[in-house]
Design brief:
about 220 residues, mainly alpha, 9 helices, about 0% strand
Length: about 220
């Protein structure tokens, strides 16, 4: 019944190609996080504004991002927008879908972090002559990011893992896509995907250890 013959050497020979795919995976994840954090801060500002339109945009974004599958969001970026005449490459569609998801989740976390920052701190900034934007940028945002840092780290890990969904829209340059193509050529399913799992594991561990070291350096006080 169990007559599978392992051929690890054949899988190891494909390791350079898989590592190239891992670089693309990291690139997508990092870009989606950088853009996602900026959008999340913007959405947080929208939710604090007095404009019902801006609040509505932010609330809708957060609700859709948090209450629909990530695969649905990537599909809408690729196939949904294509139906409207906007054709994106698989890379761009995956980046857009993950960024949308990151921004929605982080915006909600930033909203919670804001509740842990006393209003008196922003008012102190105003009394020193700062504008509302300056007080938010120099006083509120640093504390908000500090409180949300563990969540940001978790979202970065989730962004890395979400890149594996790119294969559903035709992306074959990331780690999962490269592994899928190599599997179609060699039929070494177990070996290749086990190797890909190990690479994903080490990427996640590097992120977690790097975040821990960064937190110690930035948040010593």
């Amino acid at each position: 019944m169990f007559n599978y013959t392992f051929q690890w050497k054949q899988a190891y020979a494909k390791l350079p190609q898989m590592l190239d795919g891992a670089l693309v995976t990291m690139q997508i994840a990092i870009l989606s996080m950088v853009i996602g954090i900026l959008l999340a801060i913007t959405l947080t500002l929208f939710r604090q504004s007095n404009s019902r339109i801006l609040k509505g945009i932010a609330t809708t974004w957060v609700e859709v991002a948090r209450n629909t599958p990530a695969l649905f969001q990537i599909y809408m970026a690729h196939f949904g927008l294509a139906g409207l005449g906007l054709h994106l490459s698989p890379y761009s569609s995956l980046l857009l879908g993950i960024t949308f998801n990151n921004a929605g989740y982080l915006a909600e976390n930033f909203r919670g972090a804001l509740k842990g920052i006393p209003d008196t701190q922003a008012r102190a900034g105003w009394s020193l002559g700062m504008t509302r934007i300056q007080a938010f940028r120099y006083i509120v945002v640093p504390q908000m990011l500090r409180i949300s840092f563990p969540t940001i780290t978790n979202q970065m890990v989730w962004a890395v893992l979400m890149t594996s969904l790119g294969v559903t829209v035709g992306l074959n340059k990331d780690l999962y896509g490269v592994t899928q193509d190599l599997n179609a050529l060699t039929f070494r399913t177990f070996e290749l995907f086990a190797l890909a799992a190990v690479i994903f594991y080490f990427i996640v561990k590097i992120i977690q250890i790097g975040a821990r070291l960064l937190a110690r350096r930035l948040f010593r006080y």
